[in-house]
Amino acid sequence: MLNVFETPDQVLQALAEYFVIIGNEAIAKNKKFSVALSGGSSPKKLYELLATEFHDKLDWEKVYFFFGDERYVPQDHKDSNYLMARNALFAPLLIEPGHIFAVDTSLEPKEAAKKYQEEIEDFFDEDEQSFDLILLGLGDNSHTASLFPHTPVLHDRLPGVSDVWLEDQQVYRITMNAPLINEAQNIAFLVYGEGKAEAVHHILEDDEDIEEYPAQLIEPIVGNIQWFLDEAAAAKVRHS
Fold it and tell me: Under DSSP, is residue 1 helix (H, G, I), strand (E, B) or coil?
């Protein structure tokens, strides 16, 4: 479903409200709320909003945080998704360390991915590995999480976590794969700015080509998917 707003601020406000609604529903049903966060500059503003304006609208002691992907850098590195989330969300809300599942980037990439997958499996125990909410962004090259064009992870068939080597950047990423993301109960894309309009069009309206447009892989099995866009990002979508 498309949710299109005039300005980025309105997009962030709407997604924060959605985050709280999904969280409260999950806590009422299961006494806990599992969410996988996305990295980058756009979600940072969302997390700051949740930690301030929405700090009293959710029982944060019952929220468990994971990461849809992580850059292969130390946790105190400026590019770390964990560090950004810690500063914008965890620290202000005094989230207990035991409720934060960060990727252990001190390990070799393949081992880091394997350990993170095991932590996810342990968290869900005998239950299906189905997060209550996964937040995603969209790159101007149509990637989401660290599902980048022309990378082997695009062909994963079983839910899990993979290491991804980006040849052009000469860096590794650790990412949830599409089968794991698609197990989620709710998936929300946060996308704004005219620079994303072409990518949004490719994902929502072009013929399937996952090698070029990896975010087309995101199709929840039984869950719900919502796109939160500003008018600039939605400018090339023929939505009603």
Answer: coil
Every domain of the chain and the residues it spans: 2-230
CATH numeric code, 2-230: 3.40.50.1360
Task: Report CA 64 to chain centroid distance, whole Å.
Answer: 14
What single-letter DSSP state applies at residue 55?
A: T
- Amino acid, single-letter form, for residue 60: W
Give the pair of three-digit tokens for residue 118: 């095991």
Q: What is the DSSP letter of 181?
A: H
How far apart are alpha carbons 155 and 151 in whole angstroms? 8
Which amino acid, one-letter code, is at 16? A
CB contact at 8 A, 133 and 226: no
Backbone φ and ψ for 147, nearest 5 degrees, come out as -90, 90
Using a pLDDT cut of 90, give the percent of the chain over it. 96
Task: Report the C-alpha gap between 31 and 141 in whole angstroms.
Answer: 38
For CA atoms 219, 138, 165, 132, give the dihedral sign.
negative
- The pLDDT of residue 239 is 60
